[in-house]
Amino acid sequence: MFHVTAYNGTREENYELVIQQLRSLIDGETNFIANLANAAALLNHFLHEINWVGFYLTEGDELVLGPFQGLPACVRIPFGKGVCGTAAKNKKTIIVPDVHLFPGHIACDAASQSEIVVPMTKDGNVIGVLDIDSPIKNRFDETDGQYLEKFVETIISTL
């Protein structure tokens, strides 16, 4: 049985712990969608002050909604559009302190104020993105980016 442990350390220690918990959740499971679903649920439990966390998966030149936790979301996002599409196109994590200042931001949830998007790449190809929204501005920083990239690498290792 999997148990979520309390997160009482530094931010870095807590991120390391959640990555260890992710490894336990996905160990031996080869179904990518199941692993993404559990990963979204784990992050939803772990991260504070967020209102949406989930994955978009590459289909042609678009991102299509995958497993998530939160309100219903935009289903399709073209590469290069919005924060998710831009992160996918550029293959680079994007941290947006204020989504209202991001050119072309796609407002799926009016409550979202800040966002972080981490591309998921395998063999140089973007296979999707991890998208996390917050109802407060300036919620995400470089520490979040660094550890969420490690989190995504852990998921990708199952492929």
Automatic annotation (TrEMBL):
InterPro entries: FRMsr_CS (IPR000614), GAF (IPR003018), GAF-like_dom_sf (IPR029016), Phosphatase_reg/MetRdx (IPR051330). Residues 50-155 form the GAF domain. GO terms for cellular component: cytosol. PROSITE patterns: UPF0067 (PS01320). Pfam families: GAF_2. Belongs to the free Met sulfoxide reductase family. This is GAF domain-containing protein. It comes from Parageobacillus caldoxylosilyticus NBRC 107762.
